[in-house]
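Incident log, structure service

09:12 report received: a user says their structure output differs between two submissions of the same chain.
09:20 pulled the input from the user's history:
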Amino acid sequence: MTSVSVIGCGNMGGALLRGLAESGNYTLTACDLDPEAREAVEEYAETTDDPAVAADADIVVVAVKPHIARDVVDDIELSSDQTLVTIAAGVSTDALADRTDATVVRVMPNLAAETRNMAAAVTESTVTDDVRSMLDDVGEFVDIDEELMDIATAVNGSGPAFVFYLIDAMRQAGVESGLDDEDARVLAAQTFKGAAETVLRSDEDIETLIDAVCSPNGTTIEGMDVLWDSDADEAVVDAVAAAERRSKELADESDDE
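09:34 re-ran on a clean worker, output below:
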């Protein structure tokens, strides 16, 4: 059984631990200096405040803020037969490779790792089979050139927040027209879940899928006409672009350290 340790048990590190624990395929260690963070994941992993203990794993995931990622890697000793996975936004593999003997793999995951529905991007030039298996166990992933990590950070890393925003807008519309709040929440969220699954399973492009829902003179085409006449798509593109810009800024700040 592959051993995985996660250093940094905040939102993303905790989500990854919960998803991996549910898969049942790993022995897990969680490392954090904050007792409350350790307590939040003690059901899923052995916990420690000692990075040296966490370093004794096949895969060591560094899930800390970008500005301390280097310091964390400097504090742990890894060998060439281990893998270091970094999920710190803006911190390149090159920034860490000289600080460790381990293979460095950069991953941009998202919080849906907790439910094993994660979307992730991983550096195609360094990804190992063990990391591929780990990512497979908590969702879907794509191999990309590291130069594209900033846009991946915006699309799948920040993307859940944008989707939550849209789900809530649909929930609000339902409530304003009389639906119970919880009923509207379930209908909106499940609709996004089902639509996403349809996109992943279908060979059709998204425009064709939209057309399939839009009967002539029906309800959907009326709503789509409103969206097509609006700037909704541009707002989403702008949100993704803003997140991408910030990822690049973090990378520049990281390079200056």
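09:41 both user submissions now match this output. Likely a transient worker issue. Closing.
09:42 reviewer note: Residues 61 and 187 are 36 Å apart (CA to CA). The first strand starts at residue 2 and ends at 7.
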